[in-house]
Amino acid sequence: MKTKILILAIALIFSLNMKAQGMPTYDNTNFVSLVKQLVESAKQTAQMIKSVQFLKDAKEAIEKVSSVVRQLRAVEEIAKNNQRLIHVMQNDLQDILNSPYIKPEEVNRVAESFDAIVQNSLDMVDFIDEILSSDYLKMTDAERAEILKQKELESKQMVSNIKTKTKRYKDIISFRKMQDKVNNRETNY
Predict the structure, then answer these.
(1) Distance from chain centroid for Cα 166
(2) Eight-state DSSP code of residue 91
(3) CA-CA distance, 98 to 117, in Å (whole number)?
(4) Can you say whether residue 139 is alpha, beta or left, with left for phi > 0 and alpha for psi between -120 and 50 degrees?
(5) pTM, whole model, 2 decimals?
(6) Alpha-carbon distances, residue 94 vs 103, 108, 157, 180 (angstroms)
């Protein structure tokens, strides 16, 4: 009952207000302006959607380029490590094998230990060639980059191993040379 009275009172106030102010008018220019604003807003929204799509495409392209750059750097580092291995094989190994302080029965062991590292290096190069030249089980660029990074670490480990072996054999030669000098020195007592 109270709500009915309240509704009637509000209706009465509006009707009195209408008589005081007159008949409301419809302004066509405001409506046209509103429609123009809505159309312009729709155009801006469409342009923003295009911009967002362009930025997404650009981001994907940058990620692909970044992945390729990482792969390239990993391959470049592996190539440098293989160059180091070749350098050791050409210079240091020849010096070790030609040393008079390496016994003939040790030559095969020395050559085999270096040969195993070089063979591993060649296998790695073949594997990398296979990864880069084929889809290799439909890998993504990220997975390919991860494998190349792992192979790069293995390559660094091979360089470290060959340096350690070279140093060890050079130390053996140095020790035997010193031992030879001590054993064959002239004594003037």
Answers:
(1) 33
(2) I
(3) 20
(4) beta
(5) 0.58
(6) 14, 13, 22, 21
